[in-house]
Amino acid sequence: MKNPFKYGEVVTGEHFFNREREKAELIQAITSTMNVFLYAPRRYGKTSLVLEVLREVEKKRIICIYLDLLRAPNKRKFLEIYAREIAKSITTTIDETITFCKRAFSRFVPKITLKADKIPEIEFEISWRRETEEVASEEVIELPQKIAKQKKKRIVVVFDEFPEIANYNGKEFEGQLRSFIQRHKDVCYIFTGSKRRLLLKMIGDPTRPLYKSGKIMPLGKIPQKEFEAFVEQKFRLGNINISRENLKFIFDITKNHPYYTQMLCWELWESCFSKREILREDIEQTLQIVLDHQGEYFITLWNNFSPHQRLLLLALAQGSSANVFSKDFIKRFGLGTASSVQKSLRRLIELEIVDKVNDIYEISDVFFEHWLKERVV
Ligand SMILES: Nc1ncnc2c1ncn2[C@@H]1O[C@H](COP(=O)(O)OP(=O)(O)OP(=O)(O)O)[C@@H](O)[C@H]1O
Ligand SMILES: [Mg+2]
């Protein structure tokens, strides 16, 4: 039987679990064309959730456009990908695509190639003519609303990992987006981000162009009880026994984090499938295997931190639910002053090594936290 756990990529279908409330909230926002800013720490399931939602709203004849901005390091690349995704989402045959591109992108030269795999695939390359980026970008950004009007359909555009646009030309591009987006009455924009501070600043700072341009939706963890039941059921399908207590032990280790839970369970399935049982020592051993596998990566990571950042990480690993600015905490771990804690914390958050979850600072990678506790302290 195939390992039913999955991590490291988007999950869909039988691998996607729960999130009913969040799905309903997003669908409601899309159908009422209310823009949404969805944020969650790394690997909580943002992409899986929005793609799942897109699959559902597509059935309601809503046109879906999805962009992963991690693939667009600059504005030019963003425009190329955006143009391509728009074209892909509304055409199905090559003839249609060519006609559409000719009509829609006067300032682009579309190049269409057929991939001779088993299933032929259309690919675009959009190269620039002499016109400036500004004119071209207006054309692309305006397009979803134009299409919505022409086709008398609603459109949803997802900009996944939206804070990446801060790397383009800052507020100017945000301003340009805003000026279009606010006139797009038939298009719902969903912006996602794991850099919570950056995303909230974009929408919560009155001096920023996107100030209050949508509703904020934080994505938390999947409720633990339900996630436990999901995991238990998967093990049961493989006739693998696990006690309630040991199931809880898995979640103690992973802190109910979706990605790390799936990862540990994947490993447990592999190591315990033949003996059909998971005992506490299996879980402990499997954790050690995971830490061994990641050891080199953790050492490289560790070597890049300043001495103070390391001290703070060790302190967080040992006393994560404490108030990190309190005198006791600073004294106990020899952290100097509250302002130096603040500085190191800011950097670690920027690097996505630490997250602030429910007002508590946490090391985002739970296995890195175990590694620190077990192999460094
Ligand atoms: N609803 C879910 N059901 C089951 N597993 C999930 C769910 N959401 C997330 N996961 C687990 O978390 C992993 C990460 O999911 P996903 O890539 O969607 O998160 P993300 O927040 O977009 O991550 P990133 O910050 O890397 O972009 C998945 O591979 C899966 O193991
Ligand atoms: Mg993602």
Which labels suit this protein?
about 375 residues, alpha/beta, Rossmann fold, Helicase, Ruva Protein, domain 3, Arc Repressor Mutant, subunit A, two-stranded antiparallel ribbon, 15 helices, globular, binds adenosine-5'-triphosphate, binds magnesium ion
In this entry the ligands are: adenosine-5'-triphosphate, magnesium ion
Indicate the proportion of strand residues.
5-15%
Estimate the helix proportion, in percent.
Answer: 40-55%
CATH architecture of the largest domain: 3-Layer(aba) Sandwich
Number of strands: 11
Low-confidence stretches: none
What is the CATH topology descriptor of the largest domain?
A: Rossmann fold
- How many domains comprise the coordinates? 3
Compute the CA-based radius of gyration.
24 Å
Overall shape: it is globular
Give the CATH superfamily of the largest domain: P-loop containing nucleotide triphosphate hydrolases
Q: What does this 3D model show about the protein?
A:
This protein has 377 residues and is an alpha/beta fold. It folds into three domains: 19-218, 3-Layer(aba) Sandwich (Rossmann fold); 222-293, Helicase, Ruva Protein, domain 3 (Orthogonal Bundle), CATH 1.10.8; 305-377, Orthogonal Bundle (Arc Repressor Mutant, subunit A). The chain contains 15 helices and eleven strands. The protein has helices at 20-31, 46-58, 75-90, 94-104, 133-151, 171-181, 196-204, 224-237, 244-254, 258-272, 280-303, 307-319, 327-332, 338-350, 366-376, and strands at 36-39, 63-68, 108-115, 121-128, 155-160, 187-193, 215-218, 241-242, 277-278, 354-357, 360-363. Strands 2-5-6-1-7 form a five-stranded parallel sheet, with helices on both faces. α1 packs across α2 (46-58). The longest helix is centred in the last third of the chain and has 24 residues, at 280-303. The model has no long low-confidence stretch (mean pLDDT 90). The chain binds adenosine-5'-triphosphate (ATP) and magnesium ion. Magnesium ion binds at residues 46-47, 160.
